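During the second half of the funding period, the structural biology subgroup turned its attention to how the target accommodates small molecules. The most pressing case was pyridoxal-5'-phosphate, which had performed well in the primary screen but for which no bound structure existed. We therefore specified the complex as follows and requested a full 3D prediction, including the ligand pose.
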Amino acid sequence: MWRRYLTTRISASGYSTLTRPRTSKWWDHVCPAPKDPITSVTEAFLADTSPHKINLGVGAYRDDEGKPVVLQCVRDAETKIAGSDFLESVSSAVSSRLVEESVKLVYGRDSDVIKEERFAGVQALSGTGACRLFAEFQKRSHPESRIYMPDPTWSNHHNIWSDAKVPERTFHYYNSDSKGLNFAALMDDVKNAPDGSFFLLHPCAHNPTGVDPNEEQWREISYLFKVKNHFPFFDMAYQGFASGDLDRDALSIRIFLEDGHLLACAQSFAKNMGLYGHRVGCLSILCNDKKQAIAVRSQLQNIARAMYSSPPVHGILLVSTILSDPNMKALWTKEVKAMANRIRTIRTTLKGSLEQLGSSLNWEHITNQAGMFCLSGLTPEQVDRLAREFHVYMTLDGRISMAGVTTGNVSYLADAVHEVTKFGHQA
Ligand SMILES: Cc1ncc(COP(=O)(O)O)c(C=O)c1O
């Protein structure tokens, strides 16, 4: 009957009405989605033809010539895996090696949770994918729960938990006067949250502020979490970038571990291995025992299966090759330190240049903050002037991606920042 109906609709021209273009209302109600703040910065930068232009928006590492870097350890791993039989799918041995080696980086090589296999770990689509998996798992296992996020936090955290239908609350984090941590207000919010709440924490190199609690403060936070029975979810996107030392940057997590918390951690190799395009990450959730870990892992695999099945193979092979080869891992450790050092040095140069120009404002926070980002204190109007008059691009909140600052552009940048802040104030 359907066939007869369709045949009668063949037109005189010989074209079926089914293949003739016609307007349809399927997507008429769809409006453009709001632009991601970082994408907008990149677009404006690319459209600018000035030879002086500087992109301080994107949070990916650049060398001192402003170029993206392929680490030597990655080149070595490429050579080692060349010709591997990996096109079909990654073997479970390789993917579990990635997880085993990743969790050692955060919990410590000799950690009991690893020896006792008390963790549910899965490879994930970089840090974003690991956060998304956890948000979904949180919704399914604790449907009534909320997530407490620092104010401010990486803008995509809001999208991720909102897409998982987990309601969000914020907790105090940044003090815009001191451009440091608002520790007292943070502790108050932790204390006042209902017992057993989920909290998102940045273990190091906080994005966008570059402000981290010190060791003593982490100990106090961990203690209060214990008292309140809160669950800490650590989003580790920049391990190594704060101090240059992978273990030191995991100190916050190790403190929580020592205090006997169950916790979860999202890891990304986008920045610290320069593998942004390969989307390699890991999600691990600590459990009471091995049996619980197996159950939790099976649920995570189940979520991933329906979302994207499995992640691309090449990046997993690269990371697992580097982490399981002592020489390559040692080289990687050195290369991470070098990247962190370059950023630290350029922070000092930028602060020094502003002081030399006679700026009356306090720029101490440029060197007090750590990691890839500096929340400069520039107002949206000053950021706008920097783009329009000086071809310097950053997000409207005044966040500078320090990786975009180089020996070649730092004095131009300092001049521009001095010019737009001369008669003004900081946010
Ligand atoms: C705090 C934080 N978490 C997670 C991510 C996600 O990183 P990726 O998905 O590129 O690994 C980022 C990236 O900017 C970030 O800043």
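Two results from this model are relevant to the next phase. The longest helix spans residues 326-356. Residues 59, 126-128, 154, 202, 207, 235, 237, 268, 270, 276, 281 surround pyridoxal-5'-phosphate (CB under 6 Å).
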